[in-house]
Write a structure and sequence with these properties.
With 217 residues, the protein is of the alpha+beta class. It has one domain: Sandwich (Jelly Rolls). The strands form three sheets. A seven-stranded antiparallel β-sheet has the order 1-2-11-8-13-6-3, with helices on one face. It starts with 15 loop residues before the first strand and ends with a strand. The relative contact order is 0.22. Bound molecules: N-(carboxycarbonyl)-S-(naphthalen-2-ylmethyl)-L-cysteine and fe (iii) ion (FE). The site of N-(carboxycarbonyl)-S-(naphthalen-2-ylmethyl)-L-cysteine has 14 residues, from strand 6, strand 8, strand 11, strand 12 and strand 13. N-(carboxycarbonyl)-S-(naphthalen-2-ylmethyl)-L-cysteine (MD3) binds next to strand 6, strand 8, strand 11, strand 12 and strand 13.
Protein backbone atom coordinates (compact mmCIF):
# COMPACT_ATOMS: atom_id res chain seq x y z
CA UNK A 1 0.00 0.00 0.00
CA UNK A 2 1.75 3.17 -1.16
CA UNK A 3 0.95 6.63 0.18
CA UNK A 4 2.63 8.78 -2.42
CA UNK A 5 1.34 12.06 -3.85
CA UNK A 6 2.90 11.62 -7.29
CA UNK A 7 -0.02 12.66 -9.47
CA UNK A 8 1.90 11.89 -12.65
CA UNK A 9 2.44 8.20 -12.02
CA UNK A 10 -0.34 5.72 -12.80
CA UNK A 11 -1.00 4.04 -9.47
CA UNK A 12 -1.96 0.38 -9.46
CA UNK A 13 -5.22 -0.91 -8.08
CA UNK A 14 -5.02 -1.11 -4.29
CA UNK A 15 -2.74 1.95 -4.03
CA UNK A 16 -3.98 5.09 -2.36
CA UNK A 17 -3.05 8.75 -2.72
CA UNK A 18 -3.56 11.30 0.02
CA UNK A 19 -4.76 14.58 -1.48
CA UNK A 20 -5.13 16.40 1.84
CA UNK A 21 -5.58 15.69 5.56
CA UNK A 22 -8.94 13.95 5.16
CA UNK A 23 -9.09 13.36 1.40
CA UNK A 24 -7.98 10.14 -0.31
CA UNK A 25 -7.99 8.53 -3.72
CA UNK A 26 -8.45 4.74 -3.47
CA UNK A 27 -7.14 3.63 -6.86
CA UNK A 28 -9.16 0.91 -8.55
CA UNK A 29 -11.08 0.29 -5.33
CA UNK A 30 -14.34 -0.77 -7.02
CA UNK A 31 -12.81 -2.72 -9.94
CA UNK A 32 -13.87 -6.08 -8.41
CA UNK A 33 -17.45 -4.75 -8.07
CA UNK A 34 -18.06 -3.03 -11.41
CA UNK A 35 -20.73 -5.50 -12.55
CA UNK A 36 -22.75 -5.04 -9.37
CA UNK A 37 -22.38 -1.27 -9.63
CA UNK A 38 -23.56 -1.16 -13.24
CA UNK A 39 -26.52 -3.43 -12.43
CA UNK A 40 -27.47 -1.12 -9.56
CA UNK A 41 -27.17 1.99 -11.75
CA UNK A 42 -29.29 0.29 -14.40
CA UNK A 43 -32.06 -0.53 -11.92
CA UNK A 44 -32.08 3.02 -10.59
CA UNK A 45 -32.00 4.79 -13.94
CA UNK A 46 -34.76 2.61 -15.37
CA UNK A 47 -37.08 4.04 -12.71
CA UNK A 48 -35.47 7.50 -12.52
CA UNK A 49 -33.94 8.18 -15.95
CA UNK A 50 -30.96 10.51 -16.43
CA UNK A 51 -32.08 14.06 -17.13
CA UNK A 52 -30.47 17.48 -17.69
CA UNK A 53 -31.62 19.75 -14.87
CA UNK A 54 -32.23 23.47 -15.17
CA UNK A 55 -30.08 25.80 -13.10
CA UNK A 56 -31.61 28.64 -11.06
CA UNK A 57 -30.07 30.95 -13.70
CA UNK A 58 -32.11 29.27 -16.45
CA UNK A 59 -29.32 27.26 -18.06
CA UNK A 60 -29.45 23.52 -18.74
CA UNK A 61 -26.75 21.47 -17.00
CA UNK A 62 -24.31 19.62 -19.28
CA UNK A 63 -24.10 16.76 -16.79
CA UNK A 64 -27.12 14.40 -16.84
CA UNK A 65 -28.28 13.28 -13.39
CA UNK A 66 -30.30 10.75 -11.47
CA UNK A 67 -30.50 9.85 -7.78
CA UNK A 68 -31.20 7.00 -5.40
CA UNK A 69 -31.56 6.82 -1.65
CA UNK A 70 -33.78 8.76 0.76
CA UNK A 71 -32.87 12.14 -0.75
CA UNK A 72 -32.08 13.22 -4.29
CA UNK A 73 -30.31 16.38 -5.42
CA UNK A 74 -32.54 18.60 -7.56
CA UNK A 75 -32.10 21.88 -9.38
CA UNK A 76 -34.62 24.09 -11.14
CA UNK A 77 -35.47 27.77 -11.56
CA UNK A 78 -36.29 27.94 -7.83
CA UNK A 79 -32.85 26.78 -6.67
CA UNK A 80 -30.83 23.77 -5.54
CA UNK A 81 -32.17 21.39 -2.89
CA UNK A 82 -32.57 17.79 -1.81
CA UNK A 83 -35.99 16.20 -2.20
CA UNK A 84 -37.43 12.83 -1.17
CA UNK A 85 -39.32 12.60 -4.47
CA UNK A 86 -38.23 12.60 -8.09
CA UNK A 87 -39.81 15.77 -9.51
CA UNK A 88 -40.27 14.04 -12.92
CA UNK A 89 -42.34 11.13 -11.56
CA UNK A 90 -43.59 12.49 -8.25
CA UNK A 91 -42.46 9.16 -6.73
CA UNK A 92 -39.80 8.60 -4.03
CA UNK A 93 -36.30 8.15 -5.48
CA UNK A 94 -35.36 4.47 -6.01
CA UNK A 95 -33.77 2.79 -2.99
CA UNK A 96 -29.99 2.85 -2.69
CA UNK A 97 -29.04 -0.70 -3.77
CA UNK A 98 -27.44 -2.68 -0.91
CA UNK A 99 -24.28 -3.49 -2.89
CA UNK A 100 -23.71 0.23 -3.56
CA UNK A 101 -24.38 1.23 0.04
CA UNK A 102 -21.95 -1.42 1.31
CA UNK A 103 -19.22 -0.33 -1.10
CA UNK A 104 -19.58 3.31 -0.06
CA UNK A 105 -19.45 2.39 3.62
CA UNK A 106 -16.37 0.20 3.13
CA UNK A 107 -14.58 2.91 1.12
CA UNK A 108 -15.36 5.53 3.77
CA UNK A 109 -13.98 3.24 6.49
CA UNK A 110 -10.81 2.66 4.42
CA UNK A 111 -10.28 6.42 4.40
CA UNK A 112 -10.78 6.79 8.14
CA UNK A 113 -14.51 7.51 8.34
CA UNK A 114 -15.95 4.65 10.35
CA UNK A 115 -19.73 4.08 10.51
CA UNK A 116 -20.56 6.40 7.63
CA UNK A 117 -24.22 6.01 6.61
CA UNK A 118 -25.03 7.92 3.43
CA UNK A 119 -28.69 8.79 2.80
CA UNK A 120 -28.29 10.06 -0.77
CA UNK A 121 -26.54 8.98 -3.96
CA UNK A 122 -26.28 11.35 -6.91
CA UNK A 123 -25.44 9.70 -10.24
CA UNK A 124 -23.77 11.97 -12.79
CA UNK A 125 -23.34 11.11 -16.48
CA UNK A 126 -20.79 12.95 -18.61
CA UNK A 127 -20.58 12.79 -22.40
CA UNK A 128 -17.27 13.78 -24.06
CA UNK A 129 -16.84 17.56 -23.85
CA UNK A 130 -18.91 17.84 -20.67
CA UNK A 131 -17.42 19.69 -17.71
CA UNK A 132 -18.48 20.57 -14.18
CA UNK A 133 -17.33 24.01 -13.15
CA UNK A 134 -15.65 24.77 -9.84
CA UNK A 135 -18.10 24.67 -6.91
CA UNK A 136 -18.62 23.67 -3.28
CA UNK A 137 -21.17 21.06 -2.20
CA UNK A 138 -23.23 23.14 0.26
CA UNK A 139 -26.75 21.76 -0.07
CA UNK A 140 -26.22 19.06 2.58
CA UNK A 141 -27.03 19.84 6.25
CA UNK A 142 -24.02 17.78 7.30
CA UNK A 143 -20.82 19.66 6.35
CA UNK A 144 -18.44 17.20 8.05
CA UNK A 145 -19.56 13.73 6.95
CA UNK A 146 -17.53 12.32 4.05
CA UNK A 147 -18.57 12.26 0.42
CA UNK A 148 -17.62 9.04 -1.36
CA UNK A 149 -17.18 9.42 -5.13
CA UNK A 150 -16.95 6.48 -7.56
CA UNK A 151 -15.70 7.02 -11.14
CA UNK A 152 -16.61 4.68 -14.00
CA UNK A 153 -16.01 4.77 -17.75
CA UNK A 154 -14.00 7.48 -19.49
CA UNK A 155 -11.25 9.09 -17.40
CA UNK A 156 -11.52 12.63 -16.05
CA UNK A 157 -9.27 15.31 -14.67
CA UNK A 158 -10.64 16.36 -11.34
CA UNK A 159 -9.92 19.82 -9.94
CA UNK A 160 -9.25 19.73 -6.22
CA UNK A 161 -9.14 23.25 -4.84
CA UNK A 162 -9.09 24.92 -1.46
CA UNK A 163 -11.66 26.51 0.83
CA UNK A 164 -11.67 29.75 -1.18
CA UNK A 165 -12.66 29.82 -4.86
CA UNK A 166 -9.40 31.45 -5.88
CA UNK A 167 -7.12 28.90 -4.19
CA UNK A 168 -4.85 27.00 -6.53
CA UNK A 169 -6.43 23.67 -7.57
CA UNK A 170 -4.65 20.34 -7.94
CA UNK A 171 -5.41 18.43 -11.15
CA UNK A 172 -6.12 14.83 -10.22
CA UNK A 173 -6.66 12.15 -12.88
CA UNK A 174 -9.60 9.85 -12.06
CA UNK A 175 -9.94 6.57 -13.89
CA UNK A 176 -12.49 3.78 -14.20
CA UNK A 177 -12.79 2.12 -10.79
CA UNK A 178 -11.24 4.90 -8.69
CA UNK A 179 -12.89 6.07 -5.49
CA UNK A 180 -12.30 9.41 -3.78
CA UNK A 181 -13.31 10.05 -0.18
CA UNK A 182 -13.32 13.51 1.42
CA UNK A 183 -14.72 14.71 4.69
CA UNK A 184 -13.99 16.57 7.88
CA UNK A 185 -11.71 19.57 7.36
CA UNK A 186 -11.61 18.94 3.58
CA UNK A 187 -15.35 18.56 3.07
CA UNK A 188 -15.97 22.13 1.87
CA UNK A 189 -13.19 22.37 -0.69
CA UNK A 190 -13.96 23.81 -4.11
CA UNK A 191 -13.84 21.16 -6.83
CA UNK A 192 -14.78 20.56 -10.45
CA UNK A 193 -14.22 18.38 -13.51
CA UNK A 194 -12.38 19.47 -16.70
CA UNK A 195 -14.08 18.70 -20.04
CA UNK A 196 -14.12 14.94 -20.67
CA UNK A 197 -11.84 14.10 -23.57
CA UNK A 198 -13.36 12.21 -26.51
CA UNK A 199 -12.89 8.47 -26.29
CA UNK A 200 -14.57 5.13 -25.94
CA UNK A 201 -14.41 3.04 -22.80
CA UNK A 202 -14.46 -0.74 -23.42
CA UNK A 203 -17.35 -1.30 -20.98
CA UNK A 204 -19.20 2.02 -20.88
CA UNK A 205 -18.62 3.48 -24.34
CA UNK A 206 -18.56 7.24 -24.78
CA UNK A 207 -19.42 8.29 -21.25
CA UNK A 208 -18.18 8.79 -17.73
CA UNK A 209 -20.38 7.95 -14.75
CA UNK A 210 -19.78 9.31 -11.28
CA UNK A 211 -21.63 8.32 -8.14
CA UNK A 212 -21.44 10.51 -5.04
CA UNK A 213 -22.67 9.06 -1.77
CA UNK A 214 -23.60 11.75 0.72
CA UNK A 215 -25.08 12.29 4.13
CA UNK A 216 -27.68 15.00 3.68
CA UNK A 217 -29.54 14.95 7.04
C1 LIG B 1 -14.20 17.49 -3.03
N1 LIG B 1 -19.20 15.62 -8.87
O1 LIG B 1 -21.74 16.02 -8.08
S1 LIG B 1 -17.22 13.97 -7.32
C2 LIG B 1 -20.88 16.80 -7.62
O2 LIG B 1 -16.98 13.73 -10.79
C3 LIG B 1 -19.48 16.64 -8.07
O3 LIG B 1 -19.11 14.07 -10.93
C4 LIG B 1 -17.91 15.42 -9.45
O4 LIG B 1 -18.67 17.42 -7.70
C5 LIG B 1 -18.00 14.31 -10.45
O5 LIG B 1 -21.13 17.69 -6.80
C6 LIG B 1 -16.86 15.20 -8.48
C7 LIG B 1 -16.06 14.39 -6.21
C8 LIG B 1 -16.32 15.32 -5.09
C9 LIG B 1 -17.51 15.45 -4.45
C10 LIG B 1 -17.61 16.25 -3.32
C11 LIG B 1 -16.51 16.93 -2.83
C12 LIG B 1 -15.24 16.02 -4.64
C13 LIG B 1 -15.31 16.82 -3.50
C14 LIG B 1 -16.56 17.72 -1.66
C15 LIG B 1 -15.43 18.35 -1.20
C16 LIG B 1 -14.24 18.25 -1.89
FE1 LIG C 1 -19.50 18.64 -6.10
Amino acid sequence: MSEQVDLFATPSAGARTRLATQAWVLHGYVLPHVDALLAGIDTVTTRAPFRHLQTPGGHVMQVAMSNCGTYGWCSDRRGYRYDRNDPDSGQPWPALPDALLQLARDAAAEAGFADHVPDACLINRYAPGTRLSLHQDRDEDDRIAPIVSVSLGLPAVFLFGGLARGDKALRVPLRHGDVVVWGGVDRMRFHGVLPIRPGRHPLLGEQRLNLTFRKVR
